[in-house]
Every structure is written in C-alpha cells, then in structure tokens.
Amino acid sequence: MADPKKLFIKTYGCQMNVYDSERMAEAMGADGYVLTEAAEDADMVLINTCHIREKASEKLFSDLGRLKPLKQAKPGLKIGVAGCVAQAEGDEILRRMPLVDLVVGPQAYHRLPEMARSTGQQVDTDFPVEMKFDRLPERKTHRGPTAFLTVQEGCDKFCAFCVVPYTRGAEVSRPVDRILTEARGLVERGVRDITLLGQNVNAYHGAGQNGDYGLARLLREMAGIDGLERLRYTTSHPNDMDDDLIAAHGDLPQLMPYLHLPVQSGSDRILKAMNRKHSAADYLHLVERIRAARPDILLSSDFIVGFPGETDEDHAATLDLIRAVGFGAAFSFKYSARPGTPAAEKPELPEDITNARLYELQALVTSQQRAAQEAMVGREVGVLYEKPGRTAGQMVGKSDHLHAVHVDDPTGKVGELVRVRISAAVTNSLAGERLN
Fold it and tell me: What Cα–Cα distance (Å) separates residue 405 from each residue in 44, 358, 385, 391, 392?
C-alpha cells in the first residue's frame, strides 16, 4: 500500500479561516491526504489567506517566494492559494507566481481535491449556486474540547473599508438541521465549547423545520444539546443585535458572558463615512441594553485608526467612546486601503499621525484590559482545560470571559471544566487555583 500524500496548510488571520482550513484538510483527507507540520515533507502546500489584515497580499507573495527553492527541489509539489486574497487577486497571483498550481476562493474550496488531481494551473473564484457545506465530508477529525462552527458567510453591509462582500459574497445562512448535526457530531468527539462563526454572524437567518431561525433561536436550540457546555459567537454587527439575541445573553447559561461587538470609530462623522449606519450614541445605548441583560458580560471591539478624513476631534471622540464603554479587550489597526472598496479612492493620512493615534488608543485599551483582568482576582470562574502548560503539572484553559487561565493542577486533563479561584492577573492571562 502506497504511503498517503502529505498536506501542509498555513492559515492567515481570522477564526473563520481556522475553521475553513480544518474543512479543507478534511476534504483533502477524504482524497487520501494526511496533514504534516512541515512544508518540506509535503506533497501539497496550501496557504489559506485573509484580506482583513494589513498588507495581506505582500505577506502572501513573501511566503510564496520562500517556497521557490522547495518547488525547485520537488517539481511534483503542488502549491495552492485559498481564501480571500485568492478570491480578490487570483489572476495576479498566477501572473506573479508561476509556481502556484491552484487558486481557490473561499466559496469553492470543496473543489480542492478535484483541482489537486488536475494538471496545469487551476483557478476557481466563482460563487457557486450550491453551498460548499453540502459538498464537504462529515467532520471526523476534530480533536480538542473547543471548536469553531461556521453558520453564516458573506456580508451585505458594504462598509466602505471592507473587502468581505467582494471576496465572500452576499450573506448566506446554513440550514438549522445541518448546523445541529455538525454540533452534535463535535460534542460526540469531546467538544464542550463551540463558537459560532460568520462574517456577520448575528445576521443569521437559517431555514428550520419550524420556520426561519434567527441567531437567538439557533442558540436556544444548541443549548439543548447534551454535553455542550459553552456557546459563543463572532463577529457581530451592532445593527443586528435584536431584542431576542440580547435576551438570550441573560436567559442561556451556556451562552458565555463575552461578546465581540465591533464599533470601528466613536465619531459619527467617520461612522457615516464608513457606511456603518449607526451612531456612537446608538452603540452606547446598545451596550447599556446588553449589560442590563447580562451585567457581568465582557465586551471587546474593533477599531480602525486613521480612516481617510479622520481629524483630531474624530480621534478624540473614539477615545471618549472607549472610556464610556470600558472594554475588556480590543483589536485596533491602522487603516490600510483595500483595492475595490470605496474608501480606497480617498487619500490616506500621514503615517506619523496614524501611528501616534494608534499608540494612544492602544494604551487606553490596554489599561482597560488590565483593569478587567485585575477585577477577576478573587473571583471563582469556570475554566475549560485546553492544553498542558509550559511548566510541569500546569494546565491552561479559557474562562467564561475568554481569559487565558494558568492553573497548577498535576491531575488535570484536557477537556475538564473545573472551578477555579483567580489568584493573580499577569500579562495577557490569569493564574488560579482549582477548587473542585
């Protein structure tokens, strides 16, 4: 019997890409491939790209350049590019990098096995009528107590800075029964914590046996799965946080007290230029309603600094919003143009101004993050062990609020959900003592 072919996947960026990479591995696994952790050992190298982060294309071409010697040494090696950069720049990738054998967009990766078997350069960046999830094999290889599960893809919001509507397409929601079947299968394999994914996940509207389901109704169904202890979802748009979803945060013990709710700016003028369709006051009122439903919830957000036309006053308004909310975490980025988006046509701010604003914003957010962590000291929390720590006898897991927690527990096992008293807040994590 011939040795199986080996597949190496490098994943950029977001949580949805992590999920997509798992599904690509499963699709290729059904075609005889096994994963390897070294590109040098692989028969196929696949780079799964993300266009959200700055300089995504430059990073891709740099990585492809480093693969040239490997391709020369192994002429039979297949090299593929998947994901959002593949969708947006497929022709340019093939033009600049003839070593690439296949380019596949995020809506067509169910075709990877067929493309890998073909000769010559292959490209598929279409938006097929059939959902790729209907063509992918059943998930059988997932290991570990946590998992991502995509329930929705695409976005109809068309924020001025965002390429997602062009690379992922219009909003599409998976049917309820398919999601529940996948979730139950994950739980049977030991998963206890599931994060529902979507580019605009709280816009979920999926077909079910009893009519259409919004995200709140889907979460209520999932909360009834025996053995599923924790639920989360990301990423959300403020305009799609409806009353039922807000109420679910207070009603469902399985829905963890953590919510990532991007606002991007605290300036109404910039929010309008971004085409966000909400004001800073709208966002603050929404935060009040969410905290009324779940007082202990920890909020995180996204911020873009230096959007075209941003003034000192606009930047100050963003800092004011951050102070008013009090975030437990945030992701902040300097604005960088994405080709094809409306904002890309506008002149960018000088880099020194953007850098200074980013530094100021990140310092404020970091102080809030530290305060949130220090407020956990002395509290009892649930911690789901995900892996052994770096020191002997230590376990590492996530708290209800998604903090990383280190626990000295020589008898601890991956997958255990234990009670822990937080004893210290350290950089980017907490330390605690097991209670049960």
Answer: 37, 28, 9, 14, 15
Cα Dmax for the chain? 69
Residues 283 and 347 grouped into a single domain: yes
Domain housing 324: 258-375
C-alpha to C-alpha distance for 260 and 263, rounded to whole angstroms: 10
CA distance 144 to 165: 32
What are the tens digits of pLDDT across the range 36-77? 999 999 999 999 988 766 577 788 889 999 999 999 999 899
pTM of the model: 0.84
Distance between CA atoms of residues 32 and 413, nearest Å: 32
Q: Residues 149, 248: one domain?
A: yes
Give the model confidence (pLDDT) of 4-26 as tens digits.
899 999 988 777 888 888 888 88
Cis previous bond, 36, omega within 30: no
Chosen domain end from 329, 358, 375: 375
- What the block records as the tokens of 235 is 């990423």
Beta bridge partners of 247: none
